[in-house]
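Wed. Picked up where I left off yesterday with Tyr recombinase domain-containing protein. The coffee machine is broken again, so keeping this brief.
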Amino acid sequence: MLRWIRRARRDSVLATTLRMGGKSKVSKRKKKLRPPSSDSDDSSSHREWINRIEKLYNKHVRNKRSRSRSRARRRDRKRTSSLSPSRGTPQFREPPQSPGFRSSRSSSRYSRRSSFETDRRSILSVSGNPRGAAETAVRDTHIPCDVSHAEKQSPIQDELIIHNDVVLPDEILGILGEDPSAEISSSFSLHSALSARWSHILSKGLSEIDVASLLDKCKKPSNCPLLTPPVINPEIRALLPHNMLKKDAAYVSFQTKLSAGIIGLGKGIDKLLNDSANHQDLHTSSLLPLLSDAGKILNGLFFDLSMARRSFIFPYLNKNTKDILEPCPPSEFLFGSDLCEKVKAAKSLQNACQDLKTAPTPQRYKTTNQSVSYKVKQISPDPPQGGGVTQRAYPEGSTEGQLPGEKLNSPGSPPACIQTYPGSMSVIRKALTLQGVPVNAVDTCLNSLSEATIAQYGSTFRNWWNFREASGDDVFQASAQEVISFLQHIITTTKCAFGTINSYRAALSLILPGNLGEDPMLKRFMKGVARLRPPKPRYNCVWEPRQIFIYFETHPAESPKALSMKLITLLTLATGQRLQTLSLIKISNILTSEDLIQIVVPDRIKTSRVSGRQPCLILPRFNDLPHLCVFSCLQRYLQETEKLREGQENLFLTYQRPYRTASKQTLSRWVKCTLQLAGVGTSIFKPHSSRHASTSAAKRAGVSIDVIKDSAGWSRSSNVFAEFYNRPLIDRSEFAHSIFNM
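Structure written out below (tokens, as returned):
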């Protein structure tokens, strides 16, 4: 295209020069134009003719430049005058074209010139360089001498000549400095094939098969063993909880992939170094697979880290939001760039589903003629226990929270107040006050209830509170028929056993007036519940304690954790006591003699009664069985924990820093862990099953029932052992053996 530009400009100047009386130089090239008549031999006339041609050409160039400057000044004045009245965008008008604008002699030449200028204008508009475009328009515009004034101001010339800025040399531009408005980009673009593959891995990750094949290719070098992820020290691993071990395993997987990526890059660098040292040319077929595998592994690791960050955030989101966010692949945002639209769409779908559901019909429960029908509905979610009494009042005439056919507020009546459940302790305190207990004696009456009892009654009080508030009745005033209606509602809506329903009855007897336990109608109802859902023991059989003894014989307790687990398990089997009782053992109450250890528990326990006996644990020494001797195990435990107590009186301490008193729940976890290691099925048998196993084993060994009751903490008249604890061993094959061995 530049060649055609030069040719058109040369033809234009040459035509103008020939009309003025001769030929001239067209460009700055050293090629000279010869005179038209080659027969003349006069050298002086020849030179005179050449000088004349050069003067005419120079004059033409000066006139052309002068006309261009004058035309630019006139155009600037027109633009200024057009902007000054309205201060708007300049509107250019085409100059009027006079008749006879072009002669027949030059029409073909100028039509070709017009098409040439149109092509040049399209090239300049695409170039994207305003300064270069203006410079080209001013420099490359050549107007013949015989062109009229109207043609000089044609639209073509107005579009080509943008402004008359002087092009500054590079030295001046260097002094002025860099253009601050110019955008400087330091980024680069990857090959389209590589970008497409990496983008897919970054958004979808690698499959397990691909990861395994890539890891198999990256064998670790023998002279760099630190590329293997380090393993946790065994001493530290024994102290870490299970969730921390799972998190560490995830980071080990990340390190393994990162190591594979580093190895892939290392192989490529090693090949470069070896080939350059041996003066060999590097082959693409040998280096490209190494770098490609390393890139895949590192991109997959990048995706895994993004998913790990998402997993740390999920616990702080509700279930509905989590279901929406899980399928969203990461992009420039961790949960995708269109998260807002997806959440809105999910909410719209949820609202549409709610609109399609039918309104629930109120349930009515009929008992006797004296009872009334209750509308059961949930007004508000239950708040946490312990809060004060808060109220929410519906304004007059409001229908919010109203069931079909139910009228919460009638015109002219005060707004209905719905009190939120205040907590079990507040309910019991108010009930005692309404029953006539003096205010200064309420705290003393509350001490008659244990913390476990108050916590157990909490769920009963919450359900009763919501049940009564939904129907607008008093929580602290109810008849036996109303209590039966509530208990029937619990049976209908839940799968509670007889023991739970009986606990509900006992809790309501505490806060309601009268003696519900002696009501004949309620007694009849409870007998029916016992027939429908009879109480069942947790275990129909029990495990053999010999399993635990074999485990202790083959696995000596060498670490503090193993010693703690062994001591608490042997104590539960040797004494038959509850874990609550064993958690209250204090060092000051341990009396040691030569062959016997006696432990007294004066604290209040589950079976503590007025004028009742507190448990006294007897631990004899077993010289023939040192690995099962509770006497020697307890003495060793006291010696190893002596320096860790720092004023702690309780026997059992946690085996991790800081060393604190082990709670009943902690001891239960230790026993469960020991049962699992010994092969006892912990999915069926709980830690409390050790009490069943020890007492049943004593009964099978011929120990007196009275001795078993006294040792395990039951009274002489109690039938608990016979009904719930005395269980046979798990030996399903005994019947078959007895048949075939006859």
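Quick read: The first helix runs from residue 2 to 19.
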